[in-house]
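Predicting holo structure, 7TS bound.
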Amino acid sequence: MSLHINEIRKDFPILDRETANGKRIIYLDSTATSQKPVQVIEAMNDYYRRSNANIHRGVHTLAEEATAMYEGAREKIAKFINAASSREIIYTRNTTESINLVAYSWARANLKSGDLVILTEMEHHSNLVPWHMLQMERGIELEFIPVTEDGVLELDTYKTLLNRTPKLVSFTHMSNVLGTINPAAEIIQLAHAAGAIVMVDGAQSVPHLTVDMQALDADFYAFSAHKMCGPTGIGVLYGKSALLESMPPFLGGGDMIKEVKLRSFRANSLPHKFEAGTPAIAEAIGFGAAVDYLTKIGMDKIAAHEHEVTEYALDRLEEIPGVKVFGPSADKKGGVTAFTLEGVHPHDVAQILDRDGIAVRAGHHCAQPLHEKFGIPATSRASFYLYSTKEEVDLLVSGIYKVKEMFG
Ligand code: 7TS
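Done. Tokens:
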């Protein structure tokens, strides 16, 4: 049972547009951000046209409607990741802010000089820099689970590191460069057995896989709407309610309080305690519509489709002399193919592909240490989503042959 790809593509108006030189857009950059279906665009439009008001503070019709829509989206998101309660869904701006919330609130209340935090060598900068900052401020220690040549985590080294009783293990569920899907349940279970709290960067997993908070048992889990057919400007921090209850607030201001005196305040209950100020209301509603959209199609079908396209892309890319693809085989990864072309800078590859309307990203993809590990400054990266097709892979491959010709 595969996806009705032509029907799905019709939901994404942008896939129909052309570049200035009349080329159809071949969008192979969904790892950076996904495209948005009309269902999401219209949900946000309808909200502004019909229901716009501030939330949680009015008794009038519009305020009640806006509040119900904003909170309704939270319920949908909770269900989508099988959280035990929607109180465990904190709206943030994005994955980056979600990780920073944990670093500022939980970590600053719980970590002291010498405490160990375990990360991995394949982290996005957003799961590195907040911990570097805490290291500078607090003197915490950082260790990294190494990445093998094949682009998977060295779990034996992880098990050895766990003997040093880390306070926190924080890792990405899926790499945005290698595409590697890490064995999250196993990593979490081992961390818990060693007494550590676990934070998962789910920026790349939630859009592409079925994730189940209660089965995974992660303590914190972060993701962004914009990579899963939703709008920019909103993300989620999932946290187990007991942990969130025990943490101090992150930002102070309106909405996150129960009561304020001139010299003191009482924090609001979950999830509002962590949502200071007027939030991204239209974006939350768009996020809810994105979750509805993905749910209706079915995450298992989406994952199967992406697997098929990725397997095909890996076969075709590896056929090209001079192309080296990074990361494990298709069965261990999601729809991300980062590659180099011998003798051509990744930026030149991307720029020449762009002349044919083919959108790939080039650079270190905010994973500079990982590129350093592989001894390269940058890669070109083609990535796939539910609307990607094998024909688009074929166009990518022809484009790369063109680049090769130009560079002799
Ligand atoms: N973690 C991972 C694994 C990511 O891929 C990204 C974004 C982030 C965190 C940060 O997400 P944000 O929504 O807070 O920005 N990754 C990419 C990328 O690969 N290209 O552009 C953004």
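The radius of gyration is 22 Å.
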